[in-house]
Automatic annotation (TrEMBL):
<keyword id="KW-0460">Magnesium</keyword>
<dbReference type="InterPro" id="IPR007295">
    <property type="entry name" value="DUF402"/>
</dbReference>
<protein>
    <recommendedName>
        <fullName>Nucleoside triphosphate/diphosphate phosphatase</fullName>
        <ecNumber>3.6.1.15</ecNumber>
        <ecNumber>3.6.1.6</ecNumber>
    </recommendedName>
</protein>
<feature type="binding site">
    <location>
        <position position="120"/>
    </location>
    <ligand>
        <name>Mg(2+) 2</name>
    </ligand>
</feature>
<feature type="binding site">
    <location>
        <position position="87"/>
    </location>
    <ligand>
        <name>Mg(2+) 1</name>
    </ligand>
</feature>
<feature type="binding site">
    <location>
        <position position="103"/>
    </location>
    <ligand>
        <name>Mg(2+) 1</name>
    </ligand>
</feature>
<dbReference type="GO" id="GO:0017110">
    <property type="term" value="F:nucleoside diphosphate phosphatase activity"/>
</dbReference>
<dbReference type="InterPro" id="IPR016882">
    <property type="entry name" value="SA1684"/>
</dbReference>
<dbReference type="Pfam" id="PF04167">
    <property type="entry name" value="DUF402"/>
</dbReference>
<comment type="similarity">
    <text>Belongs to the Ntdp family.</text>
</comment>
<feature type="binding site">
    <location>
        <position position="107"/>
    </location>
    <ligand>
        <name>Mg(2+) 2</name>
    </ligand>
</feature>
<feature type="domain" description="DUF402">
    <location>
        <begin position="18"/>
        <end position="156"/>
    </location>
</feature>
<dbReference type="GO" id="GO:0017111">
    <property type="term" value="F:ribonucleoside triphosphate phosphatase activity"/>
</dbReference>
<keyword id="KW-0479">Metal-binding</keyword>
<dbReference type="GO" id="GO:0000287">
    <property type="term" value="F:magnesium ion binding"/>
</dbReference>
<comment type="function">
    <text>Has nucleoside phosphatase activity towards nucleoside triphosphates and nucleoside diphosphates.</text>
</comment>
<feature type="active site" description="Proton donor">
    <location>
        <position position="23"/>
    </location>
</feature>
Amino acid sequence: MTIPAAGTTIEIHSYKHNGQIHRIWKETIVLKGTKMEIIGGNDHTAVTESNGKTWITREPAICYFHARHWFNVIGMLREDGIYYYCNLSSPFVIDDEALKYIDYDLDIKVYPDMTYVLLDEDEYEEHKRSMGYPKIIDQILKNNISTLTYWIRQKKGPFAPDFVDTWYERYLKYRKY
């Protein structure tokens, strides 16, 4: 696993449990890269869906990936505050092609006032059946929902005050436009 240096640009590839590509983010600037964490930033980046359709993100975002936790966190900077979109996912791996993870459908949306809601439980149940998620995956994800909601309530990790703003300032130093 080659850890990208700060200032380099990477792609992010999201897969489904069955190995099919789910989504690709074309350009994310690495702000911090270690074996355990990758923090990146992007703004108005192209995203390609599994069906080939492409769209552009609307606002700056700081992305947090961890090598041991089964979730990743995207902090989106909007006019009325920071919104977080948390994907329940496998820990990241990285190779010469991209940062990669498996998306396990469940998401937590966190609002600027730090209230949150668990999303896509129906999609998770459907994919758990159709893709045959093992029972151990189900247990790991439930445990990581608990960890993630604890982090949100305690304002830990990417939810800490000033985390997104601090990394966004670093992102502004690296971006090329």
